[in-house]
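Quick check before the chapter quiz. The format below is the same one you will see on the exam, so make sure you can read both the input and the output lines.
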Amino acid sequence: MEMASPSLSKQTKTSPLADETPFKVPSEQKQEQEARHHDSGNPGTASQQEHPATTSPPFFVEVVFDIPLQRTFTYLPDDEQSVAVGKRVIAPFGRQELLGFVIGTPPTLPPALQEGNLKKIRRVVDEAPLYDEEHIELARWLSSYYLCSLGEALAVMVPSGRRESAAEALLTEEGFIPPETLVLSEEQEKALSAILRKPEIPHYLYGITGSGKTEVFLRAAEATLAAGKSVIYLVPEIGLTHQLEEALQKRFGSLATTVHSRMTGSQRLREWLRMRRGEVRLVVGPRSAVFAPLQNLGLIIIDEEHDGSYKSGNTPRYHARQVAMKRCAMKGATLLLGSATPSVEAWKLMEEGKLERHILTRRLSGGAPPEIRILSLEGTEGCLTQELKEEIRTTARMGRQTILFLNRRGFAYFYHCKHCGYELVCKRCSVSLTYHKHKGRALCHYCGYSVLPPSVCPQCGSVEAGFVGFGTEMIEEEVRQTFPDLRVRRVDTDTLGKKGSLKEVFEVFRAGGIDILLGTQMVAKGLNFPGVRLVGVVLADTALHLPDFRAAERTFSLIVQVAGRAGRYFPDGKVLVQTFRPSDPAISRACAMDITGFYAAELAVRKELAFPPYTRLIRCTIRSRDPQRADRAAETLAHLIHLFLPADAELLGPADCPLSLIAGNHRRHIILRAKQLGGIHAAARSALELYEQKRDPRVYIEVDVDPVQLL
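Here is the expected output.
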């Protein structure tokens, strides 16, 4: 888990961990030095001819754009002069017009610019400012830490809608409504009391699934609101918010709202403006909600802290956890993290006493930790072992429900010829095609390329070729054939076409209208269904095959999380875990609920291999449609990094990425590694600045500070 350093944040008593290794980050090379490189409104083509003197407007306009250029651009204001800091504008840029963000209105021009060369803002998009100086300061930090431009940082923070939507508020009940009386357990009460008593330090709520973490979060939010402050409540996926929304509506009414990626830009803009006006004081949402412009921020909650979806996959590749730490440091707010399966980094911090840990050990709804058994798939015909089939029948006879989990969609995922070894892979990506039976095509899950599945081997003509392995579509077919009298629903991205369909499925399942719910990660975590007795993990091995240092951690976490769906209200829950690798430590320890043993072993491996949390990483991914250009750019960047690399740091690569081809782009990567981030961060920044002076326009470089995967 990364921590903001004294040099990149205003240190307050909220960040006691900031200057502890290995979580230091570099001394800031002031973003202002980069942001002050002005250009004319028409970069690279501004006329140098002297213009006659004109009447000067009362101010000039500093604008940044969502482009990878570390500079600001100066314009003249629009005719109405309605432009102001915090508004978005449409401005000429070269031969096009771009949406830009106003970050300043200086009264005078820098000496290097001439007023006669400046372009005029075409129009102002917003009636009122969308962001303030605090957000610009946060964007400067985001730009500096994650090595992106200020415009890219602001673009990821501010909603993209052009006008406010008139849609209904997501939570419409009026006012603050006291919750129904619910007596907290002794453990919950102790945890809540400590969190409220020490708001200046970060806290971690660690507890088994079903132990009441959500209620502690809500009580902490309630106390924060009662003190006149605001709350950000982060969840990893919008699918996890349905049940949370109900609790929020009952408890907080119109003071709370939900934001997520499925909302239109106009809907997000509407909620953003409500927050700016102080009409909303609690916002729930996934990663991007960490930027919510709430007034008087007092608490940020990060539920399921371990989840990889908190890390952005696009520039800027920020981690919501790190941004939350920065915002808490800026505002003196409390940071509250929680999970049943903490990230390895968070576990280490708790062990060292740098995160205050609060433990919840028992289920509160009459349930108990489920019985967990490992089932070997060796020799099994089909997807389900006989033991799992028998337990499904027993569960159905009891009038209870089953969840089947497999983190792989499609029907079958690997085409192989037994005669010549041919494999059917995407022509634009270095991955196997997955057969989707209902579509009758083999699809690439990375770029969408599809072909008709061959009837014989395309290479040797053998009929001993075909798809092997199984996905959720094949599981559904086998389950329906095996249990024709049971009601079965599949939940994955292939079945959830329309808005609200996931919520509808969960409501039907909760009401007892589905006997067997099968799906991918959507059914694995964060959900509370009283009728579930049995959980079957159809194949626990999927993540273990990935060439990534977090593979064991992800496998362990998924098994523990999905096991938590069973027996939450009754002490007879069962979890059956099918695998081809029953002796793998991640699987065996997850099934034994040996939490402490897993983290101790995983930390030992990470230390031996010099991976986080014992080191810090920066990954540069170079991609191009021309493999030679990608190779040359990678070698050039690696050479430049070597010029600045500290003696105690390592440079790994350049080398092919494990997924070396995606959507027709050839991918190479360079990894910088050191015990502390400062030196490699400065080296990457300096090398990238030099590279930009002569970069190949047909090559794109992605920079990922503190990557969560290396594929």
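If your answer matched, good. The first strand starts at residue 61 and ends at 65.
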